[in-house]
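Researcher:
Attend to token order:
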Amino acid sequence: MDPGRLKTLLERVRAGELDIDEAMRELGDLPFRDLGFANVDHHRALRGGFPEVVLGLGKTAEQIAAIVAELARGGVNVLATRVDAQKAAHVLAAVPGARYEEGARAIVVEQQPIAETGRGTVLVVSAGTSDLPIAEEAALTARLGGSKVERLWDVGVAGLHRLLHRRQLLESAEVIVVVAGMEGALPSVVKGLVSRPVIAVPTSIGYGASFNGIAALLGMLNSCASGVVVVNIDNGFGAGYAAALMNRKRE
């Protein structure tokens, strides 16, 4: 149940097109539905502006399919992250309208037009090609959250001229998400060039002493550039979600 659908339901009751008993049946699954192994939160969109997002990691294909189908039953757009191709094939067979975004490793059920709620553009920047799955997850999430999204790939600090060549694109963005592994220096460089907020995403990409992203995380947390905020290691979803909220028009 999203805010638009709830408003339409209440307007139909006020207009006499729908009686109270029918409306109560429509609202019967609020605030959640118990599937036995999961309590699916149908109230999330009303509280936070976006339906519950399914983390596929650690769930079986059958569990993912059941949760996605239950959320989709409410008529909202659905996102499931961290789903591998094998599990995705099962979900797509079980849930009509579902599609697999291979680059982002995510399943999307897009049942409603995505309203553009952003003031400007969310730009997602990746340091290297190996960071792309996390960057694509951020880009997909921000788009589903109502933002126009642009991408800038493979502009890490080892070849700084690649980034400086696209400075106009950096300056045109409202919010910038920067995804980097190794030593995690790119967010500081980007923030030194622009006045916009930068959301830094450390990735687990790197050699031994990168400690699966801890080196990048610590580097980003200790950034000397003011205005850099940091999410958890490999958390493209969290960065994309935050970017969409930062970019959202005020009502």
User: Anything to note?
Assistant: Residues 44 and 82 are 20 Å apart (CA to CA). The radius of gyration is 20 Å. The longest helix spans residues 132-144.
